[in-house]
Amino acid sequence: MINFRPVVFTLGTFLSMLSGFMLIPLSFSLIYAEDTSIAFIQATVLTSIAASICIHQGQKSRIHLNIREMFILTSITWFVVSLFAALPFTFYHGITYSDAFFETMSGVTTTGSTVLSGLDDMAHSILIWRSLLQWLGGIGFIVMAVAVLPFLNVGGMRLFRTESSDWSDKSTPRTQDMAKNLFFIYILLSLACALSYHLAGMTWFEAINHAMTTISTGGYSTSDQSMSHFSHSAQWISTLFMLAGGLPLIIFVQCIALRTLLVWKDAQVVGFVKFLAFVSIVLAVWYWFTHDGTHPLDALRLAAFNVVSVVTTTGYGLTDYGAWGAFSFIIFLFLMSVGSCSGSTSGGIKIFRFQIAFAIMREQLKVQFHPNGVFTEKYNNRSIQPDIVRSLVTFMLLYAAVVIVITIILVLTHLDPMTSLTAALTAVANVGPGLGDIIGPSGNFSSLSDTAKWVLSIGMLLGRLEIITVAVIIHPKFWKF
Amino acid sequence: MINFRPVVFTLGTFLSMLSGFMLIPLSFSLIYAEDTSIAFIQATVLTSIAASICIHQGQKSRIHLNIREMFILTSITWFVVSLFAALPFTFYHGITYSDAFFETMSGVTTTGSTVLSGLDDMAHSILIWRSLLQWLGGIGFIVMAVAVLPFLNVGGMRLFRTESSDWSDKSTPRTQDMAKNLFFIYILLSLACALSYHLAGMTWFEAINHAMTTISTGGYSTSDQSMSHFSHSAQWISTLFMLAGGLPLIIFVQCIALRTLLVWKDAQVVGFVKFLAFVSIVLAVWYWFTHDGTHPLDALRLAAFNVVSVVTTTGYGLTDYGAWGAFSFIIFLFLMSVGSCSGSTSGGIKIFRFQIAFAIMREQLKVQFHPNGVFTEKYNNRSIQPDIVRSLVTFMLLYAAVVIVITIILVLTHLDPMTSLTAALTAVANVGPGLGDIIGPSGNFSSLSDTAKWVLSIGMLLGRLEIITVAVIIHPKFWKF
Ligand SMILES: [K+]
Ligand SMILES: [K+]
């Protein structure tokens, strides 16, 4: 029997945290004497009311939710929190609630697709709220990916089950410790990033905003020109910290705890870095050959920045890479779904799934002509059990199905095929920009219909929840006892 | 130890069969008094010489090839046979050998992409040679899919292993019986198709050519207008026989043997027909709504014909469906890789692989919140063993990799992204036409560069061999003892 009351209670605590965080943009509003204060006060009050209703109607009977309740909570929290987090946009800007919700969902899922323009002249409080949503969404997702998803074995993530994702009673303190450590590292990285940005010429306000959206691989900017608004050194710093954002955060915790660079022993990290280096160099060489008069270092900067931006699913723009030529167009189209490491803030299919598929392939080709051969492939020293393989198939099938369905719906809203396909891909992988004139790195999602915006919002959420989390709840068996 | 001499011998027998079949277009050439006779005589002589060299250098020591030799033979036969089958085109037409090889590979793999135009005025002998290549390629592939691939367990095809694909000594007569039965049904279906086409208004020559390219899901036509050159009733007949071509041929054998319509108990056939019906109706309704003044029956004819043509990977054109609008464009883009039933002449991913993936998904979602649940999914009353799942993963990964690599190479030959992507998809799935102005149903592959043509030829062959057959031989372990 599913008891909804602990779910509602936990949701209430999340909402009350949200109303607390709304005080940050409110203070910016007051400090900079902006006319956004009323909007933030209204939003804070409404969110607080909803939070207290939830907390009072809910029930704090147990610390642990059971597995069904955890599935439900995981799926609805992001949605409900976004419903309230969208309020300041609609109260202040007078933009439609669809636009506000799209912007918010794009924020908390760290997608970074935007419907707003004129960012350079926008109120500081609104800008910081957008960045904060991404920063909170980023750490929220990491804690979910480290502590909840492996426990639910979503899409083969049982591979990443650690003692921190063991939800028996005795491990609770360990889980809480791990969450604290993750927060600590996340804040540390953000501060380092902000400081570096400032040293590279950004104002403190720009540096803080971009640090929050870099480490979370979110991609919101304070300028319509995104990162091309800033210095070359800022762009290199951005590349470095986006890369850090694409690594499993837990690796940093372990490095510090064990005082060793064991990060280089992790198959996922090694594969990820090698892949980025390879694609960046290929693209840099191609760019250098096809764009006369480019300095090799500039070609490398442009290629590395954009590749890291797309693969880590950050989505910062730095010139419209889709317009470089057909070769880069197709490369970025394929890169859009790759994703980074599991346990990072980035979306997409993720490197480990490709690595598992490749490991399966290698072994399968080996045993192909030895019909009685035994399958023994390992990944990161754990053997690839049949349930991992089935989970991988399930994930890939659902991923493709979601992209196809969203693309078809978008085409029916009169978007062209390529815009529809890349919009679906970019939303589900939480990248941000698509390809083409409308939603490419130089474009904007504001011209899309409301239907398209809601469908894409749901696509972002599905991607963020690794799809299976949601698929499980809509499975009829989930509701049978 | 791999002994190449039996492989060379078997190859020689295939080449001598090829030279025998060249006598058919030669007789057409003589009957219609065409100037193509010399070309066919030259080609026949050269092929015969090559055949006798192979037969003499080879060794008919054993009837049975071992599993390694079978892998090698399967992979190189199609390639070498195509090298010789291309000769008449280049001797007569004076087209480049690249074009001739592309046309031939496109023929024997039943892809049906063409570089020739002016088909309506072309020599009968050349036209019949094109159709014959597809017809022979079709039955050749079916025998391979029924008798060889399940034995090699290529891409999960162990599911289709029957006593006919048991290669122990005692089963040889049964395998030969099965091959004879398949030939018999194939000829019977072709005759029925030709007769129906003739009754629907085609000349006997047109009827015979189109029957050969319909049953083989090849798609070559005797007219530049493809099927839109013929009557509506011919188009309906075509839809019906393309559908038959997409069914497992062995089902017809079993129906006749057991005098029952057990075809409807086969999960793959049922899934295939339901899928075609669903997509055709959706597309017909959409077409009817968006194209004013269309009779509902015409909408259904256009939708059903084009859907069946693409999904069975026949590739006959009937108006440029890519130009109907963005919705149909994206639908046909996705349909291009679906494919039909295993054991038919059609290419693509094939229905059973999707069905297995869905079965895995259903079960995985069910056990997702029962961590100790037991996985028991079945397909066609056979349980889905882990090796089937791994084989599926391997196939999908290789399929995607081949499409991506070919797309990237095509883009580097200065094709636009969408043409490159659909050219790669249509080649690997053996469909024929792509999407867009250049290679769409109204276009032609002649304007592509030689590099593009060779790469696409290899893509067609890889697709036809279900990719894994080739991947196995390039695996280093294959050559180690
Ligand atoms: K992003
Ligand atoms: K075809």
TrEMBL record, chains A, B:
Signal sequence interval, chain numbering: none
Protein name (record): Trk system potassium uptake protein
Keyword Transmembrane attributed: yes
Molecular function terms from GO: metal ion binding; potassium:chloride symporter activity
Organism: Parashewanella curva
Pfam families in UniProt: TrkH
Family, as annotated: Belongs to the TrkH potassium transport family.
PANTHER family: TRK SYSTEM POTASSIUM UPTAKE PROTEIN, TRK SYSTEM POTASSIUM UPTAKE PROTEIN TRKG-RELATED
Topology in the lipid bilayer: Multi-pass membrane protein
Membrane-crossing segments per the record: 7-32, 38-58, 70-95, 135-160, 181-200, 236-257, 269-289, 321-343, 392-412, 454-474
Highest taxon listed in the record's lineage: Bacteria
Principal location listed in the UniProt entry: membrane
Residues annotated for K(+) binding in this entry: 110-111, 218, 313-314, 430-431
Annotated localization: Cell inner membrane; Cell membrane
Role summary: Low-affinity potassium transport system. Interacts with Trk system potassium uptake protein TrkA.
GO cellular component terms given for this protein: plasma membrane
Keywords: Cell inner membrane, Cell membrane, Ion transport, Membrane, Metal-binding, Potassium, Potassium transport, Transmembrane, Transmembrane helix, Transport
